[in-house]
Design goal:
The complex is a heterodimer of chains A (162) and B (409). Chain A has 162 residues and is mostly helical. In chain A, 43% of the residues lie in helices and 8% in strands. Chain A is built from seven helices and three strands, in the order αααβαβαβαα. In chain A, strands 1-2-3 form a three-stranded parallel sheet. In chain A, α4 links the parallel β1 and β2. Chain A is globular. With 409 residues, chain B is mainly alpha-helical. The longest helix of chain B has 29 residues, at 111-139. In chain B, a hairpin with a 5-residue loop joins β7 (351-359) and β8 (365-371). Chain B has helices at residues 18-22, 66-71, 79-83, 90-105, 111-139, 143-164, 185-208, 212-218, 226-231, 237-240, 248-251, 272-295, 314-317, 321-332, 373-379, 381-385, 390-399, 404-408; strands spanning 26-30, 42-48, 51-58, 173-174, 177-178, 341-348, 351-359, 365-371. In chain B, 48% of the residues lie in helices and 12% in strands. Chain B has a three-stranded antiparallel sheet. In chain B, strands 6-7-8 form a three-stranded antiparallel sheet. A two-stranded antiparallel sheet of chain B has the order 4-5. Chain B has one domain: Cytochrome-c3 Hydrogenase, chain B (Orthogonal Bundle). The chains are: A mainly alpha (162), B mainly alpha (409). At the A-B interface, α3 and α4 of A face α2, α5, α6 and α18 of B.
Amino acid sequence: MGVEQKLGNMGVVTTTLETVVNWTRTNSMWPMLFGLACCAIEMMSAQASNYDMSRFGMELMRASPRQSDLMIVAGRVSKKMGPVLRRLYDQMPEPKWVISMGDCASCGGVFNNYAIYQGVDEVVPVDVYVAGCPPRPEALIHGVLTVYEKVKGEKFRDLAKG
Amino acid sequence: MAQIEEVSLDKFKHLVSERALTGETMLLNMGPQHPSTHGVLRLLLELDGEVIVNCIPDIGFLHTGVEKNMEAKTYQKAEVMTDRLDYMNTMGNNLAYVMAVEKLVDLDVPARAQALRVILTELQRIASHLVWLGTSGLDLAAMSMFLYCFREREQILDILELVSGQRMMTTYFRPGGVWRDVPVEFEKAVRDFIKIFPKRIDEYETLLTKNPLFIDRMVDIGYLSKETALSYGVTGPTLRASGVDWDLRKARPYCGYEQYDFHVPVLAEGDTYARYLVRIEELRESLKIVEQALNKLPLGPVRSDNRKFVPPPRSEIGVSMEALIHHFKLWTEGFPAPKASIYSAVESPRGELGLFIEGDGGPKPLRMHLRTPSFDNLGVLPEIVKGHLVADLDAILASIDIVLGDIDR
């Protein structure tokens, strides 16, 4: 979509450039304001005064998928919500990342039944799974920092191929 | 994976007015991903310019199959499901469930456990109202409310974590009592909260109650009459703001609520502002109950010693054969409940939360049904938003305080 596909492998130039680009991406990541169930409340706690996720460049949650680059799937995904979730994911511009927050989104949690997807990875590709029912805000912040680690290691070379 | 179904207007013909079919009014979709629907609620709005002509809620985006899952579990294990229904009120859900089971199997609860239940459910009610206050403030662009309310809520969650080990999904109440006695730090933590919180409520009121911008958005918006409220089965603060004095804690006292001195705030105005005032007053009343219950917290056991339903303490298992047998029986097959059907209800922060259990003589329920307050309260929404502007919908939806986990179950 962007400069990375056009540049390809230019040796030392792209290496330095990609460090800068990845660094800026990690420090201004906009998550989507999108909660499903219980975990959404802990996601709100993570944004609120005691945990304050804006320390990590995430003070801005966008309600529109077109303005966000991180989707935090906070809660159980029902069969009715699955297609909607997929559409939201498709509407997000590249590059985009997904955190599956909590046991329900990661593996179905305690709800092994007809109504719930046994993991949101059946619907969208997931980068980081955060365990817990619901995970503490610290755990979510750790999940976000893990995404940052992943972003920092991304290579233009790989993106150009894809 | 199922695709999103593309629907034509024909499907909604019976729901919208004639004018929508000619194109005179506009149909607008709000949700399921929308910051002010408080969850995954979808509203189909029919608009005449800015004015709402019709509002059709579409629920089920969080349908979890909780009732069915509970029927597949024993009475002890099904309790974890209740936490995840109305996730603002986990202690209250536990209470509704354990009370229903206790009623079904006729189990007594020690006085200390009853008082602990009251303290913790009232703290949870405060936490739930704080989330409501914070998010509805956020909807009306009072961002600071959100930050203040969550600060106090964290203090309550710390207390819940202290007693149960979990911030939200506590499962602390068990049939026959509570999981275990509270730690020694409990009393000080609650006293600290009681000391600090009245000042904080005043702080919220300074920010909102007389704020002209806030009043403009709230007064005379979303009027709900007494008759409409009763005919739709609305309960909780939403009903009490329409002038009906109905609170299960007073009307059908449980857990020893009759011992505590508190009043139920009732207002006759029936608008969004009245619902706000009722909830603010409830914060104060809940705190009063917590203080009284803590002052006369009785000593003694926290679990019933009826070994047929309550597992024996760990220390007994090593020395008593009988205790070992009970422990084994309870955790492998559970306890049988009689063939009977019961209904038991508590006052949740949103209204009457009831549980219907049909026992079949075995360790699992035959049918479990939940009467959740948000579901009935949402039903009245189309009635009260008609004629208001789209911008007012945020305030009205926030004021009836729905939780989607509670609606869809």
